[in-house]
Amino acid sequence: MDLSLVTFAQILVAVLAIIGLMVANAVVMVYVERKAAGFIQRRPGPYEVGPWGTIQAICDSMKLLAKQIFVPANVDWVLFFLAPVLAFFPVLLLFLPIPFGPYLTGLAVPDGIVLILAFAGFGVLSNLFAGWASNNKYGLLGAARAVSQSVAYEIPLILALLAIIFQTGSLSLTEIVEAQGSYPWQWNILVQPLAFFIYLVSLVGETNRAPFDLPEAESELTAGFHTEYSGMGFALFFLSEYANMLLVSFVCATFFLGGYKGPFLDGIWWTFIKAYLIMFFIVWIRWTFPRVRFDQLLNINWKWLLPLGLINLWITAIIVKLLP
Amino acid sequence: MAAPDRTLIKPGEVQPCQSKVLPPLINLKPVNFFFDVNRAMSIWPVTFGLACCAIEMMSVSMARFDIARFGAEVFRPSVRQADLMMVTGTVSKKMGPSVTRLYEQMPAPKYVMAVGNCAISGGPFKFEDQYGIVEGVDQLVPVDVYVPGCPPRPEAILEGVFAIQEIIAGFRFWPRAEEIKS
Which of A27, A41, A68, A132 to mutate: most B Cβ within 10 Å? Predict the structure, then answer.
């Protein structure tokens, strides 16, 4: 691929649009999450700040912007300030190869999913930096948990995606969408239901959301790896958490739910509807299930998801080989 | 990494907090007003309870009273991300240094609400030769709003949050009880 001026301009526009999408997504999802939490617990949720509490998230972000930035004693200065930035910026890159619509892709690389899986590791690194640099025992324990959890859950996630890649024979996200049809019975979720289930569980573990939010378990480690971050540092961690949720939802929609293809008319709206349904599912289980213990979390991964993923991959490989 | 050793506190001695909040460096009135209104609309309290008033604090965030309506339901376990410390209940002299320490760890726009008679003045524990209880948390940290009651009703805690909002923004957002015509 030659990096001509047109490609450069295309990437620039795509990155700007993705920044807008990330910020808008965080503002909307904070409101949706608090409102959904309210309805699940039979209370109204944010109600008085703006009509139906709609500008609640904007008020929160403005407050965090104006909050004192606190640097505790004996921190590692470089890593302490690098960690929130490192949590935020690599996510921009991850959105580039995702096909939002039939012709709407930031950067149509042939090996899109490899790019996403490779750079997703930066999120783990930023959590480790944050916990290590802040010179706090809770932060360090949270960082250790975040690393062991994310590294463990990446493996069944990749195994689930590999089954689809075997079946399609391509690493390009656009080709994977094109291999599926417009109607729900032509989507990969019916061909690979076990892979979809494994992906759905590992997605929650990978984004550190409840019931797998062990890195920031409030009752044990005050706030985990971002214990010492106030103001915008904390806001950047939150922004990147919601952006990561959106990213795994988009990948799930692309791989299992037909991406931009849908009944009646293909287009960008189907990608967003499917991705946000999965986002809502993540929010829903957060407020429904209690947190698991750490040994239970790793047992689910190593004793169930990993063998199931391997068996699924093996069966898929045999079927793909026998039925060309 | 561990906390430095504090000097031994003698019986009957109370150490108030040493830090104070500095005025803002840039004092532009419209900017301050904008940020103050936003601060008033998203008060995040610390997850911090001492005695039976903490049960009322939990109750105020639950379904019947729901502090989330006013954007104050985000109870942060880490004081670095919190704005308001509700001192809910009896502060014993042994707990006093921890309360002071939590207050001093909060970043700058920070407010304290003394909930219940024990936190205000010692309440039922104020008698002669009493040796274990701090008689009023304002001996330790500067208090913005006092909410009386033993324990106060959840409505009273909500009213205390409104008073904090009035202190931050300079005006009251919600109608008073006597202004509402039913």
Answer: A68
* Domain B45-172 = CATH 3.40.50.12280: yes
- Average pLDDT in the A204-211 region? 84
With helix as H, strand as E and coil as C, how does B131-151 read? Answer: CCECCCHHHCCCCCEEECCCC
User: Which of B1, B37, B42 is the best substitution to test chain A (most A C-beta atoms within 10 A)?
Assistant: B42
- In chain B, where the domains are located: 45-172
Min Cα–Cα distance to chain B from A130, Å = 14
Q: Do B1 and A66 touch (CB under 8 A)?
A: no
CB contact under 8 A, A63 and B42: yes
For residues A43 and B63, the answer to whether their CB atoms sit within 8 Å is yes
Q: Is A224 left (phi over 0), alpha (psi -120 to 50) or beta?
A: left
pLDDT in tens, A273-324: 999 999 999 999 988 888 888 888 889 889 999 999 999 999 999 998 888 6
| ipTM given for this complex | 0.80
Provide the residue count of chain B.
Answer: 182
At residue B1, the pLDDT reads 46
Encode burial over A113-131: b for 16+ CB neighbours within 10 A, e otherwise: bebbeeebebbbbbbbbbb
What integer is the mean pLDDT of B145-174? 89
Rounded alpha-carbon distances, angstroms, from residue B107 to A135, A228, B19, B68, B102: 17, 10, 11, 22, 10
Q: Determine contact: A223 vs chain B, CB below 8 A.
A: yes
Cβ atoms A263, A99 nearer than 8 A: no
Q: For the segment B20-40, what is each residue's pLDDT rounded down to a tens digit? A: 777 777 788 888 888 888 888
Closest in A56, A135, A234 to B1, CB measured = A135
The Cα of B153 is separated from the nearest Cα of chain A by a number of Å equal to: 19
On the 0-12 / 13-18 / 19+ scale of CB atoms within 10 A, B112 is buried
Chain B residue closest in CA terms to A44:
B69
